[in-house]
Design goal:
By secondary structure, the protein is an all-alpha fold. It contains 9 helices and no strands. The radius of gyration is 16 Å and the shape is globular. This is Type I-E CRISPR-associated protein Cse2/CasB.
């Protein structure tokens, strides 16, 4: 039976599962100059799938489904969980491309220091008087009615994070995965953008 309502338990388990997948890739990619051939190929596959073509399930199946957690419902029973996991890994692949350091934050960090998506967006341009482009994309993400539209705006924001020069902007991909899952349920969607707004507008360490 397809899940119809947001589940915090599923969101939590999904966040841990995807985070483990991402850190496995990150350790391989940043552990040696240029990454292992397998990690480079995996990131390329995931980026390709985010670029708008129809999902190539047989191409990315191993990256996504290998080790699917027993604490999660079967992927066919919870399409929102599957979309969130797939999208989080694809966004990470875009974020990590050609970076010699890990862009996924170690979630052992104190809660106040976790780089949620809202906080990461603030670091693109910390001066709010000059951040119209960032704020505009965040507003667009909230305004679009479909999940794919939100993801397009998130991808654009991550591309901006990649282009800020010497500043390193990381993301807590565990929390981002949970956000991607939650925003697919109408009764819980607005809470995601509320958190992003609070984190974006709160004073943070740079």
């Amino acid at each position: 039976m397809t899940r119809r309502f947001f589940s915090r338990d599923v969101a939590k388990a999904l966040g841990y599962f995807v985070n483990g997948k991402i850190f496995g890739l990150q350790n391989e990619y940043t552990g040696r100059d240029g990454g292992t051939p397998a990690s480079r190929a995996a990131l390329a596959r995931l980026r390709r799938d985010l670029d708008g073509s129809a999902p190539a399930w047989m191409l990315i199946g191993g990256d996504l489904f290998d080790g699917w957690s027993q604490s999660l419902p079967p992927a066919e029973d919870d399409p929102a969980a599957l979309r969130a996991a797939k999208t989080a890994m694809e966004l990470y692949a875009v974020h990590q491309q050609s970076k010699g350091y890990g862009v996924a934050q170690d979630t052992g960090s104190a809660r106040a220091d976790r780089m949620t998506f809202g906080r990461a967006c603030r670091l693109i341009q910390p001066d709010l008087e000059h951040a119209n482009g960032v704020i505009g994309k965040l507003k667009s993400a909230e305004a679009v009615p479909d999940f794919e539209g939100v993801v397009r705006n998130m991808r654009a924001l991550i591309m901006l994070m990649r282009s800020v020069g010497e500043r390193r902007i990381t993301i807590d991909y565990r929390s981002l995965t949970q956000d991607l899952y939650q925003m697919q349920f109408p009764e819980a969607r607005s809470d995601v953008f509320l958190r992003w707004s609070m984190d974006y507008h709160s004073k943070i360490k740079q």
